[in-house]
Amino acid sequence: MPFCHSFRFRTGGFARRVGAAAAVTTLALLPVACSSSQTSSSSPATAASAISLTDQWIKAADSGMSAAFGTLANASDQPVNLVAASSPASARVEIHEVVADASGDKAMRPKAGGLVIPAHGTAILKPGAEHLMFIDLKAPLRTGSEAALTLTFSDGSTKTVNAQVRDFAGGKENYQPSGDNAAHGG
Question: How many CB atoms lie within 10 A of CB 130?
Answer without folding.
Answer: 18
